[in-house]
């Protein structure tokens, strides 16, 4: 069923495409991991979540470099377990990031860092269970090894231990980020009605707020074609679509790279790299002025208090550069 029904050349093409696109994701994830190791200033609670996401993506896409070990039972099992474990962990960590952002911005929780260990227990335990329980169904599936879907048992395993929790987390991400965006827009409109000193600033700030919508969009983009492809496999198991498999492979393999761009390469990370390696700043595409316009929102997950160096809620007063905290009309 699925890719195993494709021709040998098509399967080989999918394997190569998977490895190439996964290479971008591995590099992106490695960049985030290196940033955390090299720059102590980034080792805040919010960036720890991004680090866990990047480690999961690194493990997930790294399994692609095993190729298509359909004749090596041990390697096939390792690849299947790795893909299942790390991919589940990856989307669960995106849910954790969405939960922290919503809890901090909307619910005004100040004790959110205390849930970090619970997040680890919850996410790694679920990922471990999702990888171990369907282990009897791991087998070559064409271009890589995963849960075999030829019989009804394999189809159920795929749905229960991957696609159902995946789309539940995607749904929560959409809910969380839409809630945060709507909240920030209401606050920003209120701020604009009070502060009329800068006519052009609101346009940039509203655009920056809208960028929060990129996060759930990345999840949807990376997993929609895979889901459509699996539905097609279930409906017509002996007539797979190579085009769907190609789109499935390309988009899912880019998960780590896109997560790196969205979650990890914010202003603080870029500034740390520019300070350590000045020549990189010359290669930057964005101008300094525009970069500063987006600074307040680009760091929505890593706003830091000037006095104590700890993460603080997004709507907490932040130094405005004049030695004074922002008032209620300029919290954002």
UniProtKB/TrEMBL annotation:
Region of interest: Disordered: 300-332
UniProt GO cellular component terms: plasma membrane
Transmembrane feature ranges: 20-39, 79-101, 121-139, 159-180, 212-231, 243-265
Coiled-coil regions listed: none
Mode of membrane association: Multi-pass membrane protein
GO annotation, biological process: adenylate cyclase-activating G protein-coupled receptor signaling pathway; cell surface receptor signaling pathway
Keyword Membrane: yes
Composition skew (Basic and acidic residues), residue ranges: 300-313
Protein name: G-protein coupled receptor
PROSITE patterns: G_PROTEIN_RECEP_F2_4
Signal peptide range in chain numbering: none
GO molecular function annotation: G protein-coupled receptor activity
Location(s), subcellular: Membrane
Keywords assigned: G-protein coupled receptor, Membrane, Receptor, Transducer, Transmembrane, Transmembrane helix
Record domain G-protein coupled receptors family 2 profile: where: 14-267
């Amino acid at each position: 069923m699925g890719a195993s029904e494709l021709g040998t050349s098509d399967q080989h093409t999918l394997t190569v495409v998977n490895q190439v696109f996964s290479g971008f994701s591995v590099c992106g994830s490695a960049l985030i991991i290196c940033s955390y190791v090299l720059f102590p200033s980034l080792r805040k609670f919010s960036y720890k979540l991004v680090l866990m996401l990047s480690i999961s993506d690194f493990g997930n896409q790294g399994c692609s470099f095993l190729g298509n070990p359909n004749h090596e039972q041990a390697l096939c099992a390792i690849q299947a377990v790795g893909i299942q474990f790390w991919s589940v962990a990856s989307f669960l960590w995106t849910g954790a990031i969405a939960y922290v952002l919503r809890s901090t911005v909307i619910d005004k929780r100040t004790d959110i860092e205390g849930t970090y260990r619970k997040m680890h227990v919850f996410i790694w335990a679920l990922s471990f269970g999702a990888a171990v329980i369907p282990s009897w169904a791991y087998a070559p599936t064409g271009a890589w090894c995963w849960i075999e879907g030829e019989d009804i048992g394999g189809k159920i395993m795929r749905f229960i231990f991957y696609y159902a929790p995946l789309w539940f987390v995607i749904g929560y991400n959409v809910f969380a980020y839409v809630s945060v965006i709507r909240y920030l827009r209401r606050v920003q409109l209120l701020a604009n009605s009070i502060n009329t000193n800068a006519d052009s600033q609101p346009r940039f700030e509203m655009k920056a707020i809208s960028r929060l919508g990129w996060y759930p969009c990345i999840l949807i983009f990376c997993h929609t074609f895979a889901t459509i492809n699996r539905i097609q496999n279930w409906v017509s198991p002996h007539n797979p679509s190579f085009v769907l498999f190609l789109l499935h492979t390309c988009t899912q393999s880019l998960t780590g790279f896109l997560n790196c761009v969205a979650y990890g390469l914010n202003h603080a990370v870029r500034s740390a790299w520019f300070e350590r390696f000045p020549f990189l700043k010359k290669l930057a595409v964005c101008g300094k002025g525009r970069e500063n316009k987006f600074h307040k929102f680009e760091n929505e997950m890593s706003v830091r208090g000037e006095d104590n160096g700890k993460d603080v809620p997004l709507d907490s007063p932040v130094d405005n550069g004049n030695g004074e905290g922002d008032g209620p009309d300029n919290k954002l």
